[in-house]
UniProtKB/TrEMBL annotation, chain A:
<dbReference type="InterPro" id="IPR012338">
    <property type="entry name" value="Beta-lactam/transpept-like"/>
</dbReference>
<dbReference type="GO" id="GO:0005886">
    <property type="term" value="C:plasma membrane"/>
</dbReference>
<keyword id="KW-0121">Carboxypeptidase</keyword>
<feature type="transmembrane region" description="Helical">
    <location>
        <begin position="12"/>
        <end position="31"/>
    </location>
</feature>
<keyword id="KW-0378">Hydrolase</keyword>
<feature type="domain" description="PASTA">
    <location>
        <begin position="614"/>
        <end position="674"/>
    </location>
</feature>
<keyword id="KW-0131">Cell cycle</keyword>
<dbReference type="GO" id="GO:0004180">
    <property type="term" value="F:carboxypeptidase activity"/>
</dbReference>
<dbReference type="InterPro" id="IPR036138">
    <property type="entry name" value="PBP_dimer_sf"/>
</dbReference>
From TrEMBL, chain B:
<dbReference type="Pfam" id="PF19579">
    <property type="entry name" value="FtsL_2"/>
</dbReference>
<protein>
    <recommendedName>
        <fullName>Cell division protein FtsL</fullName>
    </recommendedName>
</protein>
<dbReference type="InterPro" id="IPR045755">
    <property type="entry name" value="FtsL-like"/>
</dbReference>
Length: 674, 70
């Protein structure tokens, strides 16, 4: 084609036309992005760089009464490895050392890790779990293992951090310290103190603010009118004493293991204030080990058995229908009411004994007879007295799941009352109490009649500043008259002190205790009971017997009866161990009046030494006749540095440098002593 | 404007780093405290000392308090 002006122009028009159309298209697209879809894209962009962030509030700590941590939130780490990201050279080189280190860390074999890691690489696993839920120091250790120390990109280390609730005491008191857990459906379980006070004190309020992305995975806060600062949870100080708790836990554990029992609990309470010093609940697993399974002390109401005789006798004494010196006939150890038999544990009974003896030897027939005679025509009077002593009330403690007491009423027709109800109640059947409720009553007896509510909380603090203090709460100022109290205290004391008492095996010369044993049959309504007898062994009481400081209940369910089942054998030792521990921890204080007796010879020697030390600083003094220890001290404390060599002990008889000689630094002085 | 925005960003990084450090130090502290608490628990001390033939005392310590006149 000839090259002329026209063809060039045509080409030019064509090209510029194309460019114009293209330019129009660009303009159109720009316009549509900006104005048609503008809102959508702006929102999208903002979403990528700005977000609402919830700033979680720190959950408060739970402390013991002496300031030890019982529960706190600390970061825990899951360590994984991306088995694919490392170069084949590195992987090959470090596989063995890494496996060796891991083997040392977990206790599995090195060959296991070599195989597993190789497999993970072959399977292109970029998320292979190495360790779960480890603490910070372990995390630091793993971080420095071969290969992993190369970091995330070269070594494939993946670290995930989560905030976990940790109880430094481990399994001890776990159930009482408790936790707060939310499952995926939003249902929350809240056992123990942590659960009970979680919402009110511990959890705090989460904050909220807008954040803008600024790279490196960081977000920077934007100023935002709707910003909410997080408010950290308060710390709570419980009444638990770590030392007593520790002893109680281990004493209970030992006893449960010895008697292969099903479960058991122990509670220690301060008499005057109702503060719970220790609470331990252990249940057996299928493997025969024990752990804090449920809060039996708070939640499980059961027939208390003989420990309830105290309540029965208290009611009768208060109504003045019996006295401790009244004589009852135990009738060869068997009583029959409506064809049902009450038996004594001692075959043949105890003959004719006083009410107080019946209590001390825990004679079922004795107590049942006394109560039967006193109340057979008006059982509602007995029940009313029990109600007046608050035995039918729940304790209203904050821990969730308290068991309800059952004390039947003859005036209410609900199938709980029967012709034998009164008799059976008097020795602890046909009624139900939780261990904590029983203890509260015993505590009231120890506290001269003032019934106080068991308490778990002492103080709520924020950064060491007190927010709220909890004082003792009185349930009943006087559960029964002082006179009755005195008699009951004497009875409880006799159980341990008197030779015939059921608790006499626990007697110790060193310290005093008072209490009542209980050996209750349980599940006796089941058909197989006669072949497979099951008991609840308990001991409830307080110590010291005269000025009670702590009350304590020990309940052990279903001990192996081939080993033993009596309350004094099974539960008593736990009680005694705790009493002993508290006794040995409390120093006996002897007060001595001022010892300002001056002994002339001592004074004289002291003054002599003092004046020598003041006079001789660089000149050798005469030390002959001085005690060796004084002489050496004197020479070594002079202004010049001397090397003192001492032969013998006692008083100095010879000195190598004469008196009044000027001394030089590093000079040696030899002293001979007798 | 740009410079100050960058310096603000830098501070954010610094804060994040320090926060992490605080967390780590706190958790080492708590770990140490937990360990100490387990070590000093009486049941643990008893089991350790048993090997050496030392048992807890059965009588309490005696405290002598001297009362001075002034």
């Amino acid at each position: 084609m000839a090259v002329n002006e026209k063809s060039i122009l045509n080409r030019l028009y064509f090209i510029s036309g194309c460019m114009f159309v293209f330019g129009l298209a660009v303009m159109f697209k720009l316009f549509s992005i900006q104005f048609v879809d503008g809102e959508k894209y702006k929102a999208l962009a903002e979403k990528r760089v700005v977000k609402d962030v919830i700033i979680p509030a720190n959950r408060g700590n739970v402390y013991s009464v002496n300031g030890n941590l019982l529960a706190t939130s600390i970061p825990k780490y899951d360590i994984r490895i991306d088995a694919l990201t490392s170069s084949s050279k590195n992987f090959k080189e470090y596989l063995k050392p890494l496996s060796d280190s891991l083997a040392k860390f977990t206790g599995k074999s090195s060959a296991y890790y070599q195989k597993e890691l190789q497999k993970a690489r072959n399977n292109k696993n970029r998320y292979y779990l190495l360790a779960r839920n480890i603490g910070y120091s372990d995390y630091v250790r793993i971080r420095n293992f071969p290969l992993l120390n190369l970091g995330a990109f070269k070594g494939g280390l993946i670290v995930e951090q989560t905030e976990k609730r940790e109880r430094p005491m481990g399994g001890i008191a776990q159930r009482t310290i408790g936790y707060e857990r939310e499952d995926e459906h939003g249902n929350v379980t809240r056992p123990g103190i942590d659960g009970a006070f979680g919402v009110k004190y511990l959890q705090g309020v989460d904050g909220k603010r807008k954040m803008q992305r600024i790279g490196k995975g960081q977000w920077k806060p934007l100023s935002d009118a709707n910003e909410i600062e997080p408010k950290d949870g308060f710390d709570i100080y419980t009444t638990i004493d770590v030392n007593i708790q520790d002893i109680a836990h281990h004493a209970l554990l030992k006893q449960l293991e010895t008697y292969k029992a099903e479960h058991g609990c122990v509670v220690v309470m301060e008499v005057e204030t109702g503060e719970i010093r220790a609470i331990s609940n252990l249940g057996r697993t299928s493997k025969g080990t024990y752990y804090e399974k449920l809060n039996y002390a708070v939640g499980e109401s059961h027939e208390p058995g003989s420990t309830f005789k105290l309540m029965a006798v208290a009611a009768a004494l208060e109504d003045k229908v019996i006295d401790t010196s009244d004589v009852v006939d135990t009738e060869k150890g068997v009583l029959t009411f409506y064809g049902k038999k009450v038996r004594d544990s001692k075959w043949g009974g105890y003959g004719k004994i006083s009410v107080s003896e019946a209590f001390e030897v825990s004679s079922n027939t004795g107590i049942v007879k006394a109560i039967h005679n006193a109340y057979k025509d008006k059982p509602e009077k007995f029940v009313d007295r029990l109600y007046a002593m608050n035995l039918d009330d729940t304790l209203q403690i904050p821990i969730i799941g308290e068991g309800k007491p059952v004390i039947p009423d003859p005036r209410i027709k609900n199938g709980k009352w029967s012709g034998i109800a009164l008799q059976w109640m008097s020795y602890g059947y046909n009624v139900r109490l939780t261990p904590l409720q029983s203890l509260t009553f015993y505590n009231a007896i120890a506290n001269d009649g003032e019934m106080v509510r068991p308490r778990f909380l002492k103080e709520v603090k924020e950064f060491g500043k007190t927010i709220e203090i909890f004082d003792k709460e009185i349930i009943n100022k006087q559960v029964c008259s002082k006179e009755t109290i005195k008699k009951l205290q004497q009875l409880l004391k006799n159980v341990v002190e008197k030779k015939h008492g059921t608790g006499h095996r626990l007697y110790s010369e060193n310290f005093s205790m008072a209490g009542k044993t209980g050996t209750a049959q349980t599940e006796y309504w089941m058909e197989d009971w006669s072949e497979n007898k099951r008991y609840i062994s308990s001991f409830t009481g307080y110590f010291p017997a005269d000025e009670p400081k702590y009350s304590c209940i020990v309940v052990i369910h279903k001990p192996d009866i081939s080993v033993g089942y009596y309350g004094a054998d099974v539960s008593g030792p736990v009680f005694k161990r705790i009493a002993q521990k508290i006794f040995t921890d409390t120093p006996l204080v002897d007060e001595v009046k001022a010892l300002e007796i001056k002994k002339a010879s001592v004074e004289k020697e002291y003054n002599g030494y003092y004046s020598l030390a003041q006079t001789y600083k660089t000149i050798m003094p005469n030390v002959v006749g001085l005690p060796a220890m004084d002489a050496v001290a004197l020479l070594e404390n002079m202004d010049v540095k001397l090397k003192v060599k001492l032969n013998g002990s006692g008083t100095i008889i010879k000195q190598s440098i004469d008196k009044s000689v000027k001394l030089k630094n590093n000079q040696t002085v030899v002293l001979n002593a007798s | 404007m740009i410079a100050s925005s960058h310096s603000a960003d830098k501070k954010v990084y610094e804060i994040a780093r320090l926060k992490n450090e605080v967390k780590e130090i706190r958790s080492t502290f708590l770990e140490g405290r937990t360990k100490l608490m387990r070590l000093k628990m009486e049941s643990n001390v008893i089991s350790v000392m048993k090997e050496k033939g030392i048992n807890p005392s059965v009588i309490p310590p005696k405290k002598i308090k001297v009362k001075t006149k002034n």
